[in-house]
Design goal:
Layout lengths: L6 H4 L5 H31 L7 H5 L2 H24 L6 H5 L6 H24 L7 H9 L3 H28 L5 H15 L6 H21 L2 H23 L2
Helix pairs in contact: 2-4, 2-8, 4-8, 6-10, 6-11, 7-11, 8-9, 8-10, 8-11, 9-10, 10-11
Length: 246
């Protein structure tokens, strides 16, 4: 894969070790924030014995939205802090905060749609559900559908792209793993965190992660991959509504 950065500009990002250590800290902060926000929300809504209401909390759309957006803010700030502490680094350069061209956006959206169509056809031919059962179950049991979709369409794409492509992949690409290795590693870890799905769905997510990684490196735009990720989740949300009502 072509790497258009000179050695001078590559020094404005962390290397392999720095990227991995900061990524572990960021992901830990994201996880802890979700746990603490769930505890606070549960205590405020159900009182001191909220542990007895855990089954309700799991499907509480308000909690899903609250914890997701709070985690996005806290972990997002930690990402910005990590970049700020790197000598000579700039947020726009490090993360790729630039508006993609219309041509790039159109072309990658076309590629994305083809991927979705092909993956859905293969999924159907294999006799597997287009929408995983766990997603349909979560949707049907979620108290606040709007909050549920806000997490899927807004919070998840923003944080996951900011972290996995904007920070993690961009840090690894100038290390010994090279851009191609950075794409594969970031896609594999991104897919692996979706442990609620079966192996087939995780593999589809892995392939999607490779597509997003290539799009990010080819265009240098984090905003573009956020749009692509959001588009996937919007389509998945529509499918969830359709299949849950049949």
């Amino acid at each position: 894969m072509k790497n258009d950065e000179t050695p001078a500009t590559s020094l404005t990002r962390y290397g392999f070790i720095g990227t991995v250590l900061w990524s572990l800290a960021i992901f830990a902060m994201y996880t802890v924030t979700q746990i603490l926000s769930a505890a606070v929300y549960g205590a405020l809504r159900y009182g001191g014995n909220f542990e007895n209401e855990l089954s309700k909390l799991v499907h509480d759309g308000n909690l899903l939205a609250f914890s997701a957006f709070l985690s996005l803010v806290i972990a997002g700030l930690l990402i910005l802090l990590a970049i700020k502490l790197k000598n000579n680094a700039s947020f726009s350069h490090y993360l790729g905060l630039k508006t993609p061209s219309f041509s790039d956006t159109k072309n990658w959206l076309i590629i994305l749609v083809f991927f979705i169509i092909i993956s859905d056809v293969i999924t159907n031919l294999l006799g597997k559900p287009i929408v995983p059962d766990v997603v349909v179950s979560a949707y049907n049991n979620t108290n606040n559908k709007w909050a549920f979709f806000a997490v899927i369409i807004i919070a998840a794409p923003i944080f996951e792209e900011l972290f996995f492509r904007g920070f993690f992949l961009s840090g690894l690409k100038n290390s010994f793993v090279k851009p191609s290795g950075a794409i594969i590693i970031s896609a594999a870890i991104w897919a692996a965190i979706h442990i609620q799905y079966d192996l087939y769905t995780i593999f589809i997510i892995f392939i999607l992660g490779i597509i997003l990684g290539i799009a990010y490196l080819k265009t240098g735009s984090l905003f573009l991959v956020m749009v692509l990720h959001t588009t996937v989740n919007i389509i998945a949300s529509i499918q969830t509504v359709v299949f849950s009502s049949t």
